[in-house]
Amino acid sequence: MPKWQRVERGQRFVIIASVGSAADVGGHVRLVKALIVSVAGGSRAAQQRSAPHVNERVQGARAARLGALDPLVDLSVVIVNWNTKDLLRDCLTSILHHAQAIRIEILIVDNGSRDGSVEMVDRDFPTAQVVANSHNEGFAAANNRGLRRAGGRYFLLLNSDTVVLPDALEVMVRYMDAHPHVGALGPRLLNEDGSLQVSVRDFPRLDHDAAMMLEVKYWPLLGDLARRYMQHTYAPDPEQVREVDWVVGAALLLRREALEQVGLLDDEYFFFFEEVDLCYRLRQHNWPIVYLGAVAIVHLGGQSWARVSAQRLTWYYRGLLRFYRLHAVRRRYLLLRAGIALGAAGHIVWLLLSGRRASNTRALLAAYGRILAYAAAG
User: Fold this and answer.
1) pLDDT tens digits, residue range 199-245?
2) Considering only CA atoms, which of 237, 236, 254 is closest in space to residue 173?
3) What are the φ and ψ backbone dihedral angles of 353, each rounded to 5 degrees?
4) Does residue 72 or residue 230 have the better pLDDT?
5) Per-position DSSP letters for 178-208, written without gaps between them
6) Judgement on whether residues 267 and 341 belong to the same structural domain of the protein
7) What range does the domain containing 211 cover?
8) How many domains is the chain partitioned into structurally?
């Protein structure tokens, strides 16, 4: 269990968690042995860890406690940071420059950065609140730490690699004020060059997920058709306002009353699908999710995770499995497990037989091994 230490810093404080480190999987032989044990029946412990706990989910939602409402705060901005000091500085500067018309508070949850991010915030943004973890807790758990201290009427989950544009925060808050039935809102996201970034999606579907697992986008002819379909289906009109299934968590505005009803983010999602799960629960409780194209925020995209592409695969498929296990009918869940297991096994065989000697081959083998184990365990 983590050991918590409360460190006073004047009128502010930093909460520090310390935990042990986990051993890495090493070597192809050990990897294959681990796969055999896992698939052949040695995955009971993993299966127990990942088994659906409906009662636990309900209790967790009821036990979720947001920060006490502060009538002087319109918007609590919660930012999770991991080794993006310079980007975080730009993000915070843009918030402070463009939030004069509303009352805000900023809460930064740092996931064990080693680049001086916490020290930079202490020095350059003394009004921001900081929660500093000694390790990377993941996106969902870290955001929840911020939400439990947030006092605003609304909460904005904002990535550290974003830049807030003029009037964006005010327009978003005023829209929610004028539409009290809306549970969550996502703005138009822009790439660094100003082009439109796809930021809305349908809830997971087997046909789409099968195309992802089979990496259809890389196939001759079919790949081009798949990319055109995605662009046509999910690239909304720039100025459009419409209800959607879910919006990307890089900039997600949430209503306090909605979160009080459905609970916080699910900590079991490390990275990927935590906002999908939350939007799904909001929709189940009749809280619409709105895409607001009238305002824009720049999202540089994936800067924290650029160095861990193999690990991202593990997080993605583990999150996808959890979402189906919690929210899909059993037949679809079993089909997904089978598809992921076959896809992961195929990648492992190809990597071993191709003689590929790329620098990340070992990491990819380990990642697909874990994915196969997750799919087998269920």
Assistant:
1) 888 898 887 777 667 666 556 666 566 566 655 555 556 678 899 99
2) 254
3) -85, -20
4) 72
5) H-TT--EEEEEEE-TTSPEEP-EEPPP-HHH
6) no
7) 204-233
8) 3
